[in-house]
Amino acid sequence: DVKVTQSSRYLVKRTGEKVFLECVQDMDHENMFWYRQDPGLGLRLIYFSYDVKMKEKGDIPEGYSVSREKKERFSLILESASTNQTSMYLCASSLSQFMDTDTQYFGPGTRLTVL
Amino acid sequence: ELKVEQNPLFLSMQEGKNYTIYCNYSTTSDRLYWYRQDPGKSLESLFVLLSNGAVKQEGRLMASLDTKARLSTLHITAAVHDLSATYFCAVDVIGNDMRFGAGTRLTVKP
């Protein structure tokens, strides 16, 4: 079974703090993704990565950065947290962009509150 | 920019009834996914639809894809309480980069 884990289920931070959200997958997947989920908006893609040290912007990258130093780990960084970044953050992974039947496997999510 | 629209966003059903959730998308794609999310939980993959006319069924759920109409449907047959969840469709953009609909929150009442 694919397992995607995220470092925290709940996180409370103050405005201006630097925040790190960590995601680890254990199935040697090439692709990793970060989404935020807000009521009524579904999931919106922040950043994704097809390979180590590689990153691509999604639809809403502003205020975020990412790091992928190892294949299994994909970190989301909020350089200076703001209240409008309060959200549920979901990490996902998939085997390869070249697999027709591939689906994304999601972690349990991190609910971040910025005060 | 790809837009993915689901409707309805909220659906309250009686047990035993049938209903359909619709997913429209705005650009050409031949890969569509359906996910389920239970409250407080993460997303679980339900179906992957890969071509025009694709139909997949699992239990009381059946998903179909019409790529020409850019439409997918998730049909619920004889709903039961255990199907209460939020259902998302997602459309493949490039490679495995997906865009999600807003989700349909389904409540099945006894």
- Per DSSP, the total helix count of chain A is 0
- If you consult CATH, what is the topology of chain B? Immunoglobulin-like
**CATH architecture tag of chain B:** Sandwich
The total number of structural domains of chain B is 1
What is the percent of helical residues of chain B? under 10%
Assembly state: heterodimer
Largest interface, with counts of residues having CB < 8 Å to the other chain, equals: A-B, 31 and 25 residues
Sum up the overall morphology of chain B in one term. globular
Mass-distribution shape of chain A: globular
Name of the CATH architecture of chain A: Sandwich
What are the segments of chain B in which pLDDT stays under 50 over at least 5 consecutive residues?
none
Q: What do we call the CATH homologous superfamily of chain A?
A: Immunoglobulins
Helix count from the secondary structure assignment of chain B = 0
Largest sheet of chain A: 7 strands, mixed
Number of individual domains of chain A:
1
Which stretches of chain A of 5+ consecutive residues score pLDDT under 50?
none
Helix-strand sequence of chain B = EEEEEEEEEEE
Q: Which whole number gives the mean pLDDT of chain B?
A: 91
Beta-strand content bin of chain B: over 45%
Radius of gyration of chain B: 13 Å
Task: State the helical fraction of chain A.
Answer: under 10%
Description:
The complex is a heterodimer of chains A (115) and B (110). Chain A is mainly beta. Chain A has one domain: Immunoglobulins (Immunoglobulin-like, Sandwich), CATH 2.60.40. Helix content of chain A is 0%, strand content 52%. Chain A is built from no helices and 11 strands. Chain A has strands spanning 4-6, 10-13, 19-25, 31-38, 42-49, 56-57, 64-70, 73-78, 87-94, 105-106, 110-114. In chain A, a hairpin with a 6-residue loop joins β5 (42-49) and β6 (56-57). The radius of gyration of chain A is 13 Å and the shape is globular. The mean pLDDT of chain A is 91. Chain B has 110 residues and is mainly β. Chain B has a single domain (4-109), classed as Immunoglobulins (Immunoglobulin-like, Sandwich). Chain B contains no helices and 11 strands. Chain B has strands at residues 4-7, 10-14, 19-25, 32-37, 43-49, 55-58, 61-66, 71-76, 85-94, 97-100, 104-109. In chain B, the strands form 2 sheets. In chain B, strands 2, 4, 5, 9, 10 and 11 form a 6-stranded mixed sheet that branches. In chain B, strands 1-3-8-7-6 form a 5-stranded antiparallel sheet, with no helix packed on it. In chain B, β6 (55-58) and β7 form a beta hairpin. Chain B is globular and about 40 Å long. The interface between A and B is medium-sized, with 31 and 25 residues.
